[in-house]
Structure formats: C-alpha cells, structure tokens
Amino acid sequence: GGYAVQPYGVKEIRDSYGDLIFQYQSVEPIEIVAPKPMEKLNAMLKSVVRQGTGRFSSVRNMDSAGKTGTSQNFRDAWFIGYNSELIMSVWYGNDDNTDMTKVTGGNYPATTWRYVMRDIYRNKALPPKLYGFEPEKLKIKDDDEVDIIPDEELEPNIGSFPIIDSGIDSYDRHHNPRGFERLLQNLSNESH
Prior knowledge:
Radius of gyration: 19 Å
Oligomer: single chain
Helix content: 25-40%
Shape: globular
C-alpha cells in the first residue's frame, strides 16, 4: 500500500516463432503515501465496497476497495476498484454525451467490476488482504479526523448489504430489470 504504480498495457510480444521480442520490465516501486494515511485510505475505500455505493462490486472472500462516481445528468458512471494485486476501472457512458437512464457508478460499473474480477480469480488464488485495518473500526469525527474505535461502540449500519456473490440483486431487479438482464446476458455471451 502507498506505492506508485506504473501502468503498462503490454506484458510481452513474441514473433510467429515464439521468440521474445519485447518484455515489460517492472521498476522498483516508490512509496508516495506513508503507511498510516494509507491504512486509513484503504479502510475508507473498503467501506465503500462493503456497505456503501460500491457494494455491488463485492466479490466473496476477496478483500477489495474502490470508489464510485456519476457525473451530472447521468452522462458518465464509473467504478474504480482495487485489491492488493490489481487496479481496474469500469466506465459507462454514451459516445454522443447523452444521459443514461439512472445509471450510476454503484450499479452497472460496480457490477461489471465484480464479474470481471470473479473471472480473473476463478482459477487462481485470491490476492492477499489489503494493507491496513478493517473499515468496521473506522469512524469519522466532526473535525474530519479518523479514529479506530472498538466494535461495540459502532452504531449499527442501517441499510447495509451482505457481500454479493452471484445472481441478480433486488436493487437492479426493481430499478431496471430489463437493463440488468441485458447486461447479464451480454456478459454471459462474451465469456463463452
């Protein structure tokens, strides 16, 4: 946690004979955020996934964090999530900049993120836990400082949802049943 990530798009290139032409060379990571602030940031962004607007991105038993976003008039919607191995962003929008009917970062983008991450980790070990403490122990004070408090002092989170593993969520069935069914069908067709 707290290290700069150098993004890359090509891991390696081989010619038609299988000879290696190019291979990405990773660089030594540079710490850009100290451990204590990183712990707090991870805890806050984990809570977005566990009980906030990004809850539809949750993958069972995978420790992840993220942030949803929606622009004015529903023109853009996104979810940017990460675990201890990967960072991935999902964006929904129209090329002509027209609005989408009530699409927010917490519904289609977060759900798409979940399906892609589940596929990535389907046949491999889940990543290690994120660095830092658990969000259940995070409480924001009036002066915007973050404190870790005992579980018994936490107020119950009314309206929280369990981690979602599969199936259609009642939120999407109720708010946009045909749109969500279409999304699931498209994702299913692409994975076969």
